[in-house]
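Record pair follows.
FIRST:
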Amino acid sequence: MSDETVKVLVRCRPLNKREKDLQCKVVVKMDSSAGLVQLFRPDSDDPPKQFTFDGAYYMDSNTKVIYEELGFPLVQGVLEGYNGTVFAYGQTGCGKSFTMEGIPDPPEHRGMTPRSFEHIFQEVAVRENTKFLVRASYLEIYNEQIRDLLSPTVNTALDLKEHPDKGVYVKGLSQLVVHDAAEVVRLMAKGTANRSVGATAMNADSSRSHSIFTVYVEMAETGADGQEHIRAGKLNLVDLAGS
C-alpha cells in the first residue's frame, strides 16, 4: 500500500451538446504528468489559476487508466485486509456516474465500480489456501434519514449506532452474501432503482441523495503453522447527490 492514505484526483469531461449549442468555451487546461489543473478566462491576459492534485485526467482520458492508477491498488489493499473508499464528488452532470458506473462499450470506459467487483472475484478465484466470504450492503441518506436500498421494506428509516468494538454502524442494514461480480452488479442495479432522483437543469435523473455501496471481504488463510488466520477488508463506493 502507498504511504498516502488519501488521494484526490480530478477528471474533466468534454462539453456536452447543450454546452456546445450555447457556444460555451473550455476554460480548463491540464498537465496529467504533473497533476496540474489550470483555470483561465477566455480572451483575457490574466494569468491562469493553478491547482495541483494527486492525479489530473483531461477530456481524452478513459476510466481504464484511472482504475489502473487509483482503483487497482485500493482494491488490492482491501484484499490484504485494509478498508478503502472511492468518493465521487462534483456538480450534477459533471460525469460522476460515467466514471463510477461507466458504459460497457467501448471497454476502456467501463466504470470503476464493475472493475472493482471483477478485481475482487478474480482474486477470490486464484488465491490459494484461502477461503473467502463476500457480502454487500447499499444504503441511502436522504433528508437526514437512512434507508436500506436492498431491503424489501426500503422506505423504513434506520438508525445510526455506535459500538465500542465495531465503531459506527447502521442497525438493521442488510448484508447479502454474493458469489460473483455479476451478482454484485445486479444487487447494485436493484438498489439504484430505489434511490431518490429528481430533474435538474443539468441532468434529468440527478441523484437527490447520498449513497454508500459497501463490499465486505473476509478471508481465512491457512498459514505455514497450519492454522487459519482471519483478515477482513471493506470497500466503500460513495456517490454524493449532485450539487
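SECOND:
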Amino acid sequence: MLTPRLRHARIAHGKAVPMYDEPRLQRDFTFVDDIVDGLLAVANASHITSGVFNLGHSKPEFVSDLIGHLEQALGKQAEVVVKPLPKTELLVTSADISGSTAAFGFHPTTSLEHGLRKFVSWYRGYQLMDTQRGFSLERSQANFFHALREEASWLRHRSAQTHALRRAGIWQRNHQHRLDAWQGTKSRAWPPLSKVKQITRVN
C-alpha cells in the first residue's frame, strides 16, 4: 500500500507524481483486507503444518491505471513527471497464489479501482486527524520513513546479537568437547543453545 499512499498524498496536495516512461509497466496491487483474509485462512487451516505460501492479487495492473483511478477517486488531475525506466526494473510483477488457493482457498476479491476508493475514503479521515494535530504532508512522510529506518536498524542489531550468541554457543560446545576428550570421557549431549551462557544481552 506504500505506492498508492504516497501517490495519493502527492495528488491530493498538488505535488508532482513521478512515473516511469514505460506504458507497459504492471504491478500486482493487493488490498489489505485480502491479505488479512489470507492470513486468517492459513492460521485456521489445521491441516497445514508447514509450507511457503504467496499472498497477492495475482492480476497485475498497469501503473498508469493506478494513477487514473486515484484521479477519479480524488476528483483531481495528477501532475505527472515522467522519468526513465531503470534497467533493473521489471516490466511485470505478479504473485503466484496457486499454492495458497489449493491449500486454504485463498481468493482475493478486491479490485484495484474498488480498493483505491476505499483507500481514499480511509486516508481522508487519516489526513483530517493529521491536520487537527498539526501534521503536514512532509512531516507525515518523514515520520513514516523514520519508522522504517528505525525498524531496519533494530533488525540489523538483533541479527548481529543473535549471530554473536550462536558463535558463543559453538565456541563453548567445542571447548567442552576438547575438555571431555582430554579427561578421557565420552562427550555428553550438548545442551540446547538457550542453556548456553549468554555473553551478549538480547532485549
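COMMENT: The longest helix spans residues 137-183.
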